[in-house]
Each structure stands twice: as C-alpha cells, then as structure tokens.
Design goal:
Shape: globular
Number of domains: 1
Strand content: over 45%
Oligomer: single chain
Number of strands: 12
C-alpha cells in the first residue's frame, strides 16, 4: 500500500480524492474524499474542507465537518472546528474541538428503513418505534 504526502508549501483548492493513505502538511480548501483510506492532517496543515475517509488523524487544523467510517483521532495540539460523524472518536488532552459528535453506531439504534418506493402509510410505523 502506498502513502501519499502533500508538503507544507502546497495549496489545493477544490476536490481532492484518492485510493491510498494520505498525509497533508499543506493547505486544502474544498472537499477531501478518501473513503477507504486513512487521512492524516499534519502539524503544519490548515484544512478548510468537508472530509470523508475511513480514519482521520488530526495533528493540525481542520475547519469543516469530518465523516469517518472507522475512527477520528484528534491528537495533542490538533484542532477541529466542525461536526464529526464516526463510530469512534478520540480527543487528546490539549486538543481543540468545537462542534457536535455523532457516533453513528448501528447496534443500539432501531432500524427504520426507508425505501425509494415507500408509501406515506409507512410513516406511522416509524413514528411508533420506541428507543
């Protein structure tokens, strides 16, 4: 497996996607999509983007929402201003976080499936689910 690296002098504006683990030390504005891979936000990085990855490790600054299918790890001196959606979230002492966390575990949540051909009559069934 290869690991990509974006140096601290690099500035990217737009969409960034890939199918390998990536470390960013520079600046990214826009959207980052590494759905099946690990994204590391380096200590020098300044990210203003929506982030989608398997796992995200934050050592630098992120402004924007983070969606990770496995884990988000905000390390010492890491900073996140935005909402996090991930089944596992770790925030180290000394880290900064401002936003909401949705730990979307499927196990404890009642399943309500909505299908594209669902009829309006199905709505009372979903409303009657007790948590």
């Amino acid at each position: 497996m290869s690991i990509g690296n974006i140096g601290k002098s690099v500035i990217i504006k737009g969409e960034l996607s890939g199918s390998e683990d990536l470390t960013i030390e520079g600046q990214v504005e826009g959207k980052i999509e590494l759905n099946n891979n690990v994204l590391t936000i380096g200590t020098n990085a300044k990210i203003k983007a929506q982030v989608f990855a398997k796992a995200v490790v934050v050592l630098g600054e992120v402004t924007g929402n983070i969606n990770a299918s496995e884990k988000v790890d905000i390390r010492d001196n890491g900073s996140v201003d935005g909402d996090i959606t991930s089944p596992k979230v770790a925030i180290a002492e000394g880290a900064h976080f401002r936003g909401a966390i949705d730990m979307n575990r499927n196990g404890g949540v009642p399943k309500v499936e909505v299908k594209s051909d669902a009829k309006p009559a199905a709505a009372p069934v979903a409303a009657g689910v007790k948590v």
